[in-house]
């Protein structure tokens, strides 16, 4: 099982909801924050199809899965899995055109 996200690499804005809860006064406030996309350069460098991707494991132990992300022809692509091995994720990424 895995998910794929893709969007423009340049000029993309993400919207995130931030909810602040005040337990003492029994109130909450939700704000929508808009941020410019910035590619995360952390993680292990993986090269395929003349591209440079980054892989970050989900956990530091032997649990499979993680995040594989790269930019291809102006599009940001990210594969996320909690079950597939890094090797299988790279195989899928190589097949994407």
Automatic annotation (TrEMBL):
InterPro entries: DUF4367. It holds the Pfam family DUF4367. Residues 6-96 form the DUF4367 domain. This is DUF4367 domain-containing protein. It comes from Paenibacillus filicis.
């Amino acid at each position: 099982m895995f998910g794929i996200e893709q969007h423009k690499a340049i000029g993309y804005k993400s919207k995130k909801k931030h909810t602040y809860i005040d337990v003492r006064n029994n109130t909450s406030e939700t704000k929508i924050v808009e941020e410019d996309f910035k590619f995360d350069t952390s993680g292990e460098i993986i090269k395929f199809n003349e591209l440079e991707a980054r892989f970050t494991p989900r956990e530091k132990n032997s649990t499979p899965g993680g995040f594989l992300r790269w930019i291809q022809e102006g599009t940001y692509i990210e594969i996320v899995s909690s079950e597939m091995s890094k090797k299988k994720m790279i195989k899928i990424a190589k097949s994407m055109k």
